[in-house]
Amino acid sequence: MNLLAFDTSTDALSIAVQHGARVWQHSGAGGAQASATLIPAIRDLLAQAGLSFDQLDAVVFGRGPGSFTGLRTACAVAQGLAFGARGGQGVPVLPVDTLLAVAEEARAQHGCTRVVATLDARMNEVYAAPFEWQADGRWQVPQDFQLLAPEALAVPDGWTVAGNARAAYGERLAPQAPHMHALPTAAALLRLAPALLAAGAGVAADAALPRYIRDKVAQTTAEREAARQAAPAPQT
């Protein structure tokens, strides 16, 4: 298949293009910069792969949870590119959960098969969900994802915590569990895409939506001050 995948849900921008059996990848700064750099980087990577938008079979994007701005950027770009592909006939869009992509990246990079995937949700919270690799070569995906304080994350024995939340919260996050750094890379999205497309997860461009877990994107001044006062004093 010829696939374009990208994720802008974290502070890292990740893009990958699959042309037959080969994959081209690009990574860069995400966050606020992604809205300006995503489309030029996609064009460059497609050119390296010798592909045009009219040759794509689907557009894959990390739908969240994650940065609100990043999710909206990725969804809007995925919709626009999918609408215009194949001379305006359009191609399907495949929205993929970012926590699932974290679990897949942990499996590919570290061999983890029982993963509590986490992403920093800011505001002293993490997004989290457990994923277990099955004998049929697919992930068992939970029905619901969690949004919770890092101290509240429960990790079963024998499971690994993967994601980027450990860097933000340190020992506050599951101090007894093994940890692996993993991000929802575009390469992980590509590995997940064939099974998801075969299962009918691809949608028309206008039906592609981000996945939000939180409906509040910022703390008030009073909330920030309360959190500052409640934080433990730095060690001297």
UniProtKB/TrEMBL annotation:
Gene3D superfamilies, per the entry: 3.30.420.40
Coiled-coil intervals: none
Organism domain of life: Bacteria
A GO term from the CC aspect: cytosol
Domain Gcp-like: residue ranges: 35-132
Biological process according to GO: tRNA threonylcarbamoyladenosine modification
NCBIfam families for the chain: T6A_YeaZ
Name of the featured protein: tRNA threonylcarbamoyladenosine biosynthesis protein TsaB
Lineage: Bacteria, Pseudomonadati, Pseudomonadota, Betaproteobacteria, Burkholderiales
